[in-house]
Specification:
By secondary structure, the protein is an alpha/beta fold. Helices cover 42% and strands 14% of the residues. The chain contains seven helices and five strands, in the order ββαβαααβαβαα. A five-stranded parallel β-sheet has the order 1-2-3-4-5, with helices on both faces. It starts with a strand and ends in a 14-residue tail after the last helix.
Length: 210
């Protein structure tokens, strides 16, 4: 049984990534991160020997398109407080599976505070290209994103997987958005559970791996 460390990010619902905490895993250290928490996880991986790294909707660089979305979120916060931020965020963070659910939106908003939102905006607005931290670890990498993620579309995750120094695998889940760990938690649980046990990299004929 290995050790699992969670990096849920500042915009997670109150329970964060706790549903992944007790999954069985291979011996060694396993890091699971959501959103901007990917950077903190990668900094740990740079300093310590890590067996696997799970990145859920990772945010590791800022480009003009992401900057425009951040500006809209900041405008929502400054003009409408947390409610204004959540109104803009509803369009950017949720996929069709959850966007119409007032219950899901309410649970997400429970985990927000103005201080956390401002810290999140400051952190993401200050990102450079942090994918370089991936070169500091040879841990196997799993990237999971929502196919309908309007905030960090799937090509962001492809960039992360392509940049990984070790083995990497990427999945996109239909009808889920940026908050994929909670919108599609059963699928995420299955994918992460298999990955922590090494099931995602079973050898195939010819030496290839899934």
């Amino acid at each position: 049984m290995g050790e699992i460390r969670l990096f849920p990010g500042l915009l997670s619902p109150p329970a964060g990534l706790d549903f992944l905490r007790d999954l069985p895993s291979e011996e060694g250290l396993h890091l699971i991160a959501f959103g901007e928490g990917a950077l903190a996880a990668l900094k740990v991986a740079f300093k310590e020997e890590v067996r696997s790294l799970v990145l859920l909707s990772p945010i590791l660089r800022k480009d003009p398109l992401l900057s425009a979305k951040l500006s809209a979120l900041r405008f929502g916060l400054e003009t409408g407080g947390l409610e204004g931020f959540a109104r803009v965020g509803r369009a950017l963070f949720f996929g069709p599976r959850a966007v119409e659910s007032e219950e899901v939106l309410g649970v997400w908003k429970e985990g927000l505070s103005e201080g956390k939102v401002r810290r999140w905006l400051h952190l993401v607005e200050g990102l450079s290209d942090e994918r370089r931290w991936l070169r500091g670890t040879e841990a196997r990498v799993l990237v999971v994103q929502g196919a309908w993620d309007a905030f960090t579309p799937p090509f962001y995750g492809k960039e992360v997987a392509d940049f990984a120094k070790g083995e990497a695998v990427r999945f996109t889940l239909e009808e889920a958005g940026h908050l994929v760990p909670w919108e599609a938690w059963e699928e995420v649980l299955d994918l992460v559970g298999d990955f922590l046990l090494g099931e995602a990299f079973r050898p195939l004929p010819g030496g290839l791996a899934l």
